[in-house]
Specification:
alpha/beta, signal, TIM Barrel, 5-stranded parallel beta sheet, GH, 6-stranded antiparallel beta sheet
Length: about 450
């Protein structure tokens, strides 16, 4: 969400990288959860003190990624102005946050005087070359500042085009193809993704108001690595309490089917959250639901059932409860960053699993996930109506070799501790209507 009115429109209508260099010079994935979690927006025109609260929030939850967006990345003649990102890149580096770069454009620009069309394939190709050369790891910016192995490896453009639905579809496609071709001409290992879509979440439109079919061939060819879906769960418009038909996985599957994709594309989310509105206004209710939302977005699978979430960013960690976006604010008023209960839920997830990788996810049947790390394993279960085929609240967990202890965690913290041994352990009669996590330590 880059403007408050967009989030109100949704209400009214409604994966990770590590600092390891590959042969191409691009950052390679290490797969751990801390490289799949982040937030935004790290806006370039506010590089400095105004973004300190967001950096504090990212550090507070243990995230390593941030969406860095700019409306000033080119001038009125559509000439790229890459130095617009320079100060923000330095601030991100000093805060230990790796940026995912977003080139902003709004369809309403066509109503400006003079109009600002989205631009041609050539315009975007040129921008892709310039920005990839400058801000990839060990690119021009890094060399100028003697900073090694830091930079952007994922680039995206045109946030939520399906909300305003004013950009001509062919022009949108040409812009995305130009950007992708330009970036890949510099380094084929860099990833390009269309910035987030909202229409499936808003009104169930799997065509994304026509923007999906417009780029289907780019997704099929691999020029675009995957799709970024914004999922705002709402008690009236997108109630996850009614079953997994209101999940990120369901929209992802419907869109792929509608577009006729054969290639197994990746899943991204730069915005998701639980709306604290109407029936979900209670902070504790929203926090419980948010734990389900976290694992829903992290647990998206591909055609063969393999986990394919690159990253999942909640919106918005640093916002406080004021203004039009108050229902999604994840911070409280106070000195520095004061986490709201949903932020505390994310902190608990990261405390348990920041150094873990996702082994498996079963969103269609059991509603479970399995992660593993240096010190143990984490198992997740969505014990919610319509999210699991496990009946009676009886959750049996396979125990890894050498398991010594098992801890049961809920949205609000530790619930139970047991000694572990043998091949499995079973929790009996767990109450429904929430998501559980079981930490098995060796």
């Amino acid at each position: 969400m880059t403007a408050p009115w967009r989030r109100m429109a949704c209400l009214a209508a409604a994966a990770g990288l590590g600092l390891v260099l590959g042969a191409s010079g691009a950052l390679a994935a290490d797969g751990t959860l801390k490289w799949r979690i982040g937030g935004g927006n790290l806006v370039t025109h506010l590089a400095g003190a105004p973004t300190d609260s967001l950096y504090e929030a990212l550090r507070g939850v243990g995230a390593r990624l941030g969406r860095m967006n700019s409306y000033g990345w080119r001038d009125l003649e559509r000439v790229p102005t890459p130095h617009d990102f320079d100060a923000a890149m330095m601030q991100a580096y000093r805060n230990g946050i790796t940026p995912v770069i977003l080139f902003e454009y709004e369809g309403s620009y066509q109503y400006l005087d003079p109009p600002q069309p989205i631009g041609s394939y050539d315009d975007w190709y040129k921008a892709g070359v310039i920005y990839a050369k400058r801000f990839r790891p060990n690119g021009e910016w890094g060399q100028e500042h003697r900073i090694r192995d830091f930079g952007a490896t994922i680039f995206s453009a045109v946030n939520e085009p399906d909300v305003q639905n004013t950009i001509p579809k062919k022009d949108y496609r040409d812009a995305l193809e130009g950007l992708a071709d330009g970036i890949h001409s510099v380094d084929p290992a860099l990833k390009v993704v269309p910035a987030g879509f909202a229409a499936c979440n808003i009104d169930g439109d799997a065509t994304l108001r026509g923007y999906g079919p417009a780029i289907a061939d780019l997704l099929e060819s691999g020029k675009l690595d995957g799709i970024d879906l914004h999922t705002y769960y709402n008690d009236r418009w997108y109630p996850l309490t009614e079953g997994r038909q209101f999940s990120a996985q369901t929209c992802f599957d419907r869109i792929k089917q509608t577009l006729g994709l054969k290639r197994d594309i990746n899943f991204y989310s730069t915005e998701y959250n639980i709306s604290r509105s109407a029936g979900w206004s209670d902070e504790k209710v929203a926090a419980s639901l948010f734990l389900t939302a976290i694992w829903d977005n992290l647990g998206v699978v591909g055609a063969k059932g393999q986990p394919i979430t690159v990253f999942a960013f909640p919106w918005n960690l640093a916002d406080t409860g004021h203004g039009e976006g108050a229902g999604y604010a994840m911070a409280k008023d106070g000195t520095g960053w004061v986490p709201e209960e949903r932020s505390r839920v994310l902190m608990r997830v990261m405390e348990l699993a920041a150094d873990m990788t996702i082994v498996s996810s079963d969103p269609y049947k059991s509603g479970t996930m399995h992660l593993t790390g240096p010190k143990g394993d984490l198992f997740v279960w969505h014990n919610r109506r319509g999210w699991t085929d496990i009946a009676g609240g009886r959750w049996t967990i396979p125990l890894p070799e050498g398991a010594r202890r098992i801890e049961l965690w809920g949205w609000d913290g530790l619930r139970d501790i047991r000694d572990a041994g043998g091949e499995s352990f079973t929790f009996e009669a767990l109450p429904g209507g929430e998501t559980y996590m079981a930490l098995v330590t060796r």
